[in-house]
Fold each of these.
Amino acid sequence: VRVWIFLAVLALAAAPVSAGESNRYDKFRNETYSNDGLMSERDEIRLGAEVHRQVLQKYRLVTDPAITAPVQELGQRLARTSGRPNLAYTFYVIDDSSVNAFSLPGGFIYMNTGLLALAQAEDELASALAHEIAHVVARHGLRNYKKAQRTALLFGILGAGAEVATRGSLGGRAIGAASQLLAAGIITRFGRDFEREADYLGLHNIVHAGYEAEGMVRMFGRLAQAHNGKKTPGGGIFASHPDAKERIHNTQVEIAQHLNGTVAGVSGRPRRVGGTPGNSGGFDRMKAGVSTHRSSTATNPGTNQPERPVLRRRP
Ligand SMILES: [Zn+2]
């Protein structure tokens, strides 16, 4: 079944885009982004750092520099050409063979080893990284946070979380709230329009960084294959995202209408959109590292818990 789904996605990827096609990204085209009306950047970073501590409690990070350094390097390159180049970003690899990625306000970006294993070219990995960077650029986590604050009386989740942002309190209540923020997916799970906006911003980001726009189309094809109906309730690269068919179509319309088949590379020379992208040595080393990395979750995918004895009935 998986093979047929993948072939169907590939067939879709080859479908031509007509010139007058409506473009779902048009509504984002003239957006500008800032912290105005949300919280200061300093408080945003503090909020992200607080939730990051919860990420460290919940997930195991990969420390092998053969894997982490190329991801950091690629991430920093994309961050510099993003719509928010002056924020200090940090890129982490989570030891989890399920295919996922997510980000936190303040520039904390996470990629599962499962996603690194899935990407077959540097521009594909760049697409996933740029999508997560875009959530930070567009302050999607912060906007969800503010919305949740407004309804906190209704749901009673965020009483202490508000203090993290407004007073920098790192007391027990705030830590509890940060944990709830993560568990409830409040700042990591987004609606479809935020996801479309992140796809739009991410596509332009990879092109500005000198990558092939088509890399994003290929990445969506691979995600569709890996996704195969699974849900990620905590948020991440699949949760509430438009389906792969739509994401591929949106990307192709944008390439046809606004990237015009050619893009300026980092050198300023026009480059063909498409063709075979070159991988840097770092990407190839990262792939080799991931393929030999013994994931703690290989026998228990998606849970990020160490393997536990399981009581089995005799047949
Ligand atoms: Zn997303």
Amino acid sequence: MSTLVIEGATILSMDSQSSIIRNGSILVNKGIIEYVGPYRDNYGCRIDDRLNVVGKAVLPGLINSHTHLCMTFGRTIGVERDLVAWLAVQVPLISAMDRDAFYYCELLGAIENIKNGNTTIVENIVAPLTDDNRMENAALEALKASGARGVLARCHQSRNFAQEYLETADQQDTRVRALAEQWHRVDEGRFRVAIGPQLPWLVDEDGLKSTQALARQLGLGLHMHVAENPNFNIQIAKHFGRPIRNVELLFETGVLGPDTQVVAVSDISDREIELLEKTNSAVVFDPQTRLYWGSGFAQINKFLDAGLLCAVATNGAGANCSQSIFESMKYACATAKTAAQSPTALGCRRSLRMATIDAAKQLGMDHEIGSIEVGKRADLITVDLTQPHLSPAFDVEAALVYSASATDVRDTIVGGEILMRDRKLQKLNERDVVARACELASIALKASGIDEHNLVNVRERTH
Ligand SMILES: [Zn+2]
């Protein structure tokens, strides 16, 4: 791999001081950052490629800590429904995809993330489960083709869900071992595998315990939706036969811990936050999606006060119609401030760290990515600061969190490879991928039995 210099930028390093370097430059050699600091004329080596980024900010690639690329074909379908009713239209659509359609669904979602500046994607895959892991493999192959870095967080269900998604603990064990063998930490650690129940009531206590044991045995992370809305606790009481709250159940079954990412955590008690603190669990917020669902929102300030490691995510395109971590950062601040009734509850600097270095820490990848420091992999993005809606950017952190959009990202680099240059994808033909994906999406929609000309009837109780 060649050398690349990025010069003239305002660099947000996300190092321990959140240092900002004006008119700085970065030297990348063989995918690794070899220099970051003030502009230089000479690097003492041959330079194969240069990115002049005067007027732009350079920051570490953003980490989308929870999404469902597998639901990208479900964008705009079943909007304005509650979670269970929404799943009733999303799941048949996934089931109607063949492997090719599923690959393009994942690829479409991956390039959307790359265009939005998300260089690492935690893909919480919901798919029919098979002995040959064909859907999981399709998802990882799509991530690989896109050039993104990724964690495939595989959903496990053993009850209360469509038959083709169910598996026993033994089946999960065999399939996950094969998947991890093939993908976990391969390609210089570009890909990882995590596991977890999709929703708490889709497994029983034994299912929680066996999933936890398997993850620990194979060194995989645990990743799961937790207390997204008040209905979670109602469903848990119904299916577990006792009034126990979501985090209490996870604590009781030994599932919590530093390698466990709990996602959404909207309907959560102070006692549950204490349990997360006690177990040092990792927390992922998707505030814009919570607002979209009308399911309340996490009181982020309380998690921060408890000293928990927090990250942000978008959740799936099928759930909120956006894959913008810029939205996640902004709404994390807005909801934290609203919850605390204080403008200081969560600042833009911390919010940027939740999208970069703190997210990398949650994944155990902070020695490799999450900040712009010598020795780390060059996962970088540039953002054009010269546009009217970002001018003047006296406080560049505030401009990025409160005023920037994902479409302001101009270049996306992963491991030193430029995946998007001046908004043009370099590895893939964007137009071809979108066209093919839409073609396959239409076929899958038809096969799912949903009438594409009558989607308004798929909504419920709309005004
Ligand atoms: Zn989700």
